[in-house]
Amino acid sequence: MSRPILLIHYYYPPIASIGVIRNYEMSKQWAKWSNNICLLTTSNAQVLASEKRPIPDKIHKVELTTRDYRTTKSRSTTNHLVESKKQSWHKQLAIKAINSFPFLPIIGEGGKRYFAEGIKEGKAFLTKNPKAIIYSSFRPYADHLIAHRLKKLFPKSLWVADFRDLHLDPLYKHYLFEKRQIEVNKRILKHADLVTTVSEGLATQLRKLSQNVHVLKAGIEMFPPQSAFRKFTISYTGSLFLDERDPRPVMKAVSELLAENKIDQNQFQLIYAGKDGPLFEAQIREHSLESIFSNKGMISRDEALNIQQKSHLNLLLTASSKEYSGILTGKFYEYLAAGRKMLLIIKGNMDAEFEQLFRRDHLGYIYTTNKADMEALKSAILDDYQYWQKTQQAKSLDMELIKNNYRWETSFNEMIRTLGI
Which residues of the chain have a pLDDT value below 70? Predict the structure, then answer.
C-alpha cells in the first residue's frame, strides 16, 4: 500500500544542474507510486541558471525562502565556479568550511531560513500524514538536516537518506575536523530507516557511518539516435575538478598518433564543453593540438547531449584509489544515454566497479593514467578511427542491453522492497 511522500530537494527543476537529474527521475517514480506528494525545494530556483522540465501533476511543490551564498548569483549558464577560481588557499578553506559542521548549517547551501521553513512546511505535511515516507538527497546536507529533524518529530515516518556523492569523500577531502564530521554523520544517519547511494564504492564508505545502506543505481533517459560528426570526434563535456580529472593521456596519445601520421588532422577533432575551458585549453597547448581542438564553453544540457550523441568516443574522466572507488557520476549515465562508446581514463588505480560495468555492457575502453597503459590507449583510438575511415560510422552501444540494465523503475522497486512496504 502506497504512503504519502515528502521530498526534500534543494536541487530540483528548474535549477540546471546534473544533480537535478537523480532527484527529478526519482520524483517521477514516486509519482507513479503515491497520489499524495509534497516537494520542498529552494527559492533560489528563481535566480540560478534554470532548465524547465515537466513536473508530475501529483507533486505539490513548495519553494522555501533561501538566503545562502548562491542567492546572490545572477542568472547565468552555470551554477558552479570554474576550477581555476577554486585553487587559492582561502577559496579552498571556504569550500571546506561550507561543507563542515558546525559551519555547514549556517553558511552552507540552504542556510538558516531554508532550514526553518523546511521544518515548518514539513511539520504541516507530516501532521496530516505522520506515516509518510521522507526522501532527502545530498547535496546539500541541509536537506538531510531537515529530514533528520522531521524524523525525530514524527517517528512513525520512514526516512530514506540518499547520497548522490559523499559528504566525507576520502579523495577530495572538502571538509574540516574529520573526527567531528564522522561523529555528526553517525549521529544523524542512525535515525534514517534506509541510506541509499549510487554505487558499491560509495556504499563501502557510507557503511562506516550507517549499517543500513542500499545501492540505488541510476537509470537513463532514452533519446532518438543521431548521425555522427563528419570528423572523427572525441569529446569531453564536464568539469576537471582541479587535478582529479586528467585528460592528458588522451591528448598525448592523439599527439603521438598525429606525429606518426596514423591519423589525419583534417579528419579528427577534440571537443570540450564545460566551465573549465581555460584549463583544458592550456593542456591542449601543452600537446600542440590547437589545430584540432574546439572549445564550446558553457552550453545547455541539451547542447551537451547533442555533442555526446554525435561523437565517436565520449571521454569519461574519474579518479580511484584503494580507499575510494565506484564514482559513477551523472556524466556516466549521460554517456550511456548518448549511445556511443566511452573512453574512460582513471586517475589512480583501476576501478573494479567500472571495469565490471564496461565488460558486462560492452561500453568501450578503460585505462588508468599509468604510463603502461599508453600504447593500449593509442591502439584503441587508432582502431576506432580506422573503423570510422572504412565505414563512416561510429561504434554504438547496445541500447537494448543498456535500457534493460539501467532502469529507474527497477532501482526504485528494489528500494521499496528493501523498505518492506
Answer: 1, 73-89, 242
CA proximity to 249, closest of 153, 361, 378, 349: 378
Cell of 31: 509519482
> What is the separation, in whole angstroms, between the first and last Cα of the chain?
7
Residue 225 lies in a domain: no
136 in any annotated domain = yes
Do 384 and 412 lie in a common domain? no
Indicate whether 411 and 298 sit together in one domain.
no
Amino acid occupying residue 200: E
CB-based contact 164:198 (threshold 8 Å): yes
- Residue 96 domain-assigned? yes
Within its chain, how far is the Cα of 402 from the centroid?
18
Closest by CA to 418, choosing from 133, 194, 181, 101, is 194
Q: Are 114 and 68 in contact (CB under 8 A)?
A: yes
Beta strands in 183-222 (DSSP E): 194-197, 213-215
Domain-embedded: residue 160: yes
Q: What is the pLDDT of residues 353-404, one digit of tens each?
A: 999 999 999 999 999 998 878 999 999 999 999 999 999 999 999 999 999 9
Q: Give the integer Cα–Cα distance in Å for 75 and 123.
A: 32
From residue 68, give the alpha-carbon distance in Å to each of 15, 40, 109, 140, 201. Answer: 15, 16, 6, 12, 31
Conformation bin of residue 140: beta by default, left when phi > 0, alpha when psi is -120 to 50: beta
Q: Are strands 5-8 and 133-138 parallel, antiparallel or unpaired?
A: parallel
